[in-house]
Amino acid sequence: MSAPPADRSAVRPRSGRRPIPPLVFLLVLALAALVVWWNVFDTEGEIQAEEAEACASASAAPPSLDPTTVSLRVLNATDTAGLAQTVAASLQERGFVVEEIANDPTEREVTGVGELRYGPRGREAAGFVELFVPGAGEFLDTRATAQVDVVIGPEFGTLAPPEEVDAALAAGASAAAAC
Question: pTM score, two decimals?
Answer without folding.
Answer: 0.64
